[in-house]
Every structure is written in C-alpha cells, then in structure tokens.
Design goal:
Layout: H1 2-14, H2 18-52, E1 59-60, E2 70-72, E3 81-84, E4 87-90, E5 96-101, E6 110-121, E7 126-132, E8 135-143, E9 148-152, E10 166-167, E11 175-182, E12 186-191, E13 194-200, E14 219-223, E15 225-236, H3 239-242
C-alpha cells in the first residue's frame, strides 16, 4: 500500500505544470490590463467633465436627442414640446409653452446663448428666465404684441415699463441669436451680437412675472407662438470677466 502511494506521488510530480502556470499568469495579466483600462477610462471621463466645467469653456445644455435634463413647464395650457433633429420645437400654447432646467446651474457669473425662430404667432419668441444670485429675472424678446425687448422685472416693473425696455422688429421664420451675461455688476443682453440691454445690479431688485414662476431657476418659453430653439449653451465667466 505504501509503495502504491509513493508511485502515485511520483507520477503526479512528473506531470507538466508549465501550461497551468502560464494560463494562470495570463489570466492575471488580463485582469490587471482590464483594471488599468477601467481606471484609465474613469480618469479620462473625469478629466473631460472637469475640462467642460472650466471657466470660459462653453457647455451644451440641449442633449443630442430628447429633452434629458429638462422638463416641460406646467403652465396649465401649454402646447407640445418636441425634438426635430437638432431643433427643439415649442408648439403654440394658450398662451405659454416652455421648458425648465432640472440640473445644477450657476447663480451668477455666467454667460448663456441660443438661437430662436418664431415660426408662427405674434408675441415673444424669447422668454428666458434666469438666476441672479438668489433672485430671478426674465429676458424677453418680442413681447407685448411682438416687438418689446427688456428685463422682467426690475424693481417691480416689467419689460414694457422699466429702463431696459426697447422696441425690436422680429420677423417670423428668421433665426435670431440671443446672448445673456450675468456678472458681479451687470445683466447684459445681446441680439445678433448687438448689445440691447445693460442693467446694473447694485441697488436693484429682480423678479419674474407670476406667469413664469414655473420657469425658475432656468427656463425658456414662448407666448402665443410656435417657436424653434437650437444651439443652447452656457459657460462660466473667467475671473477677469466676473468684475468688468
């Protein structure tokens, strides 16, 4: 019996082990490679996210499809909101249709821009509600029958009544580029790269009309009009830009 056990042990000891050892080493190497690749991918994603969030770097606010990150504003009698390729279409509401942003957004020291086209209708194609520190305000383009531009509201006075009010002609089925900046001193607005608003912040109170409360903190809406939106993006201001 003892001799048989010795023979079995000798036979097992003589079996080749190189293949098993090589296979084990290869599996270990593959696991290490997969781990390193995963860690590298995570680091790359984090670096990309950090790069996109740097001051001065533009960041898109519309996803490629759908309205992820946004929700349809509950005005009570809003029209349909849908994607048409790169465009976001706000169907005519009674009177308002819009969307509001559900993710984190700066309270100040930022710049935002987008393009809008009034497809049909005769009132504002730009109803941009935005934060100003702990307050909110709206940049109106084409209100009060189609032509009033201004901020609603400043010290309780809406865009048709305060010092930011002006008249601007908007044609249907034509694209207009809107840009807004909120820095430490001013709220500034542009249409097609022409400055149309500069409102000093110090000593003034900003608010929104009750009709667009649901657009806060950041939202876009149209009044009695079918409107298409595109190229919505924002950036944080650099340190040099924050105090002009």
């Amino acid at each position: 019996m003892r001799i048989a056990i010795i023979w079995i042990w000798l036979l097992l000891a003589a079996l080749p082990t190189n293949g098993w050892a090589q296979e084990t080493a290869e599996k270990g190497k593959q696991a290490d490679t997969a781990k390193a690749s995963s860690e590298s991918g995570q680091a790359s994603d984090a670096a990309e996210a950090g790069e996109a969030d740097k001051p001065g770097k533009w960041k898109a606010l519309f996803p490629d499809e759908g309205i992820e990150g946004w929700e349809v504003s509950d005005f009570g009698s809003q029209g349909e909101v849908r994607r048409d390729g790169e465009l976001l279409v706000l169907e005519k509401g009674h009177p308002l249709t819009g969307i509001n942003y559900k993710l984190a957004f700066p309270k100040e020291n930022y710049e935002l821009e987008f393009s809008a086209q009034r497809i049909e209708g005769n009132d504002f194609l730009c109803g941009l509600t935005f934060p100003v520190a702990d307050e909110f305000c709206s940049f109106i383009g084409g209100g009060w029958g189609g032509g009033v531009v201004g901020l609603s509201s400043v010290d309780g006075y809406d865009a048709a009544e305060n010092a930011t009010s002006l008249y601007y002609t908007f044609e249907n089925k034509r694209w207009y580029k809107f840009r807004l900046r909120v820095d430490s001193k001013n709220i500034t607005g542009w249409i097609d790269d022409k400055e149309v608003i500069q409102q000093e912040r110090e000593g003034h109170k900003f608010s929104t009309r009750i009709e667009v409360y649901v657009s806060r903190p950041l939202g876009l809406c149209a009044f009695s009009s079918k409107v298409a939106l595109r190229d919505l993006r924002y950036r944080k201001l650099t340190a040099a830009e924050q105090t002009p």
